[in-house]
Amino acid sequence: MKAYVFPGQGAQFIGMGKNLYENSSIAKELFEQANQELGFRITDIMFSGTDDQLKQTKVTQPAIFLHSVILAKSIGDSFTPDMVAGHSLGEFSALVANNCLNFVDALKLVHSRALAMQKACEAKPSTMAAILGLEDQVVENICNETEGIVVAANYNCPGQLVISGEIEAINNACDALTEAGARRALVLPVGGAFHSPLMQPAKYELEEAIKSTTFNTPSCPVYQNVTASAVTEPTEIKNNLIAQLTAPVKWTQTMQQMISDGASEVIESGPGKVLQGLFKKIDRRFPTSSAAIEL
Q1: Which of 154, 228, 161, 231 is nearest to 194 (CA)?
Q2: What pLDDT is recorded for position 78?
Q3: Annotated catalytic residue, options 24, 68, 74, 88
C-alpha cells in the first residue's frame, strides 16, 4: 500500500517549486491561481526571494502547501495514494491529496491559519526546542514539573521530541532535560509556540473558517496528527484539524500506525526529505522516496 506524506513548516527553501512552474503547465496554472487568491505573488518569494521573506509564517505555510500539493497533482494518473498523512501544516496538503478539500478552499484555510498563528506569535513571545536522546515519558514528566507553559508538541520519531511554550519555561526545561541526559536540547529559530496552549487565539479564528468550509468524503484515509489513526468521516476530520493547533503532533505514533495498517512504501510530496528520514528512524529498511522522482 502506498502512503503519501506531506511535510510541515521548516522544510522550505528558496527556489522551491521553480522547476515545477517552468516544466509543468498544470503546475504553472495552479501557482498562478494561488498568486491571485492570496493577493500577492508568493511565487516570486518562493523562487527568488530572501530567506527572511520566506520564513515569515504567513508566507512559509502557503508556500510549503503549494509546493506539496502541486507536486502531487503534477504526477498525474500515477498519483494513487492508499493512505495519506501530513506533519502539522502538511495535514492540509494531505486533505487535498485524498480529495477531502479542494485546492482553493485548502489554500484559503492555510492562509487563514498562517495569519492567525503569526498574530498569536506576536501577542506572546514564545518558542520551541528539540530534545534528542530521551524517552518521551521523561520529556513529558519534566515539562509537567517545569513552572510556566511548556508542553510536548511534536513526537517526531523515537528519541526526538519537540517541546513548545513560554521562552523562560522552555529554557528552564532545556536545562533540566540536559541534566536528565538529553543528547541535545536545542532552542529552535521559530517565531512562536506552535501546538501549545499559546495557540488558543489562533484556534478560535481557524475554527470559524474550518466550520464554514465544505469537507468531502475522502478517497482514502487520512492519519491525523491529533489521533495518529485513520480517519474518513468529514466532521471528525474537521474537529481534529481544529484541535491540531493546540494539541501535539503524534508523528511517531502516526508512522507506526500506517506501517501496522499495511503501508509498504512511503512517498514524500513536498520540499525536502525530512519525513523520509523520520520513517527510516522507525525502520531503516522501510522503502521511502520523493514524489519528485516520479515526474
Answers
A1: 154
A2: 81
A3: 88
Q: Which cell numbers in the block locate residue 294?
A: 516520479
Domain ranges within the chain, ordered by starting residue:
2-122+197-294, 125-187
Looking at domain 125-187, its CATH architecture is 2-Layer Sandwich (3.30)
CB count in 10 Å sphere of residue 233: 12
Name the active-site residue from 24, 87, 195, 269. 195
For the question of residue 195 being annotated catalytic, the response is yes
Percent over 70 (pLDDT), the chain: 99
CA end-to-end span of the chain, whole Å?
20
Output the CATH code of domain 2-122+197-294. 3.40.366.10
Helix-, strand-, coil-residue percentages of the chain, each rounded to 5: 50, 15, 30
Share of the chain above pLDDT 90, in %: 88
| 24 classed as catalytic | no
Euclidean distance between CA atoms 227 and 291, whole angstroms: 25
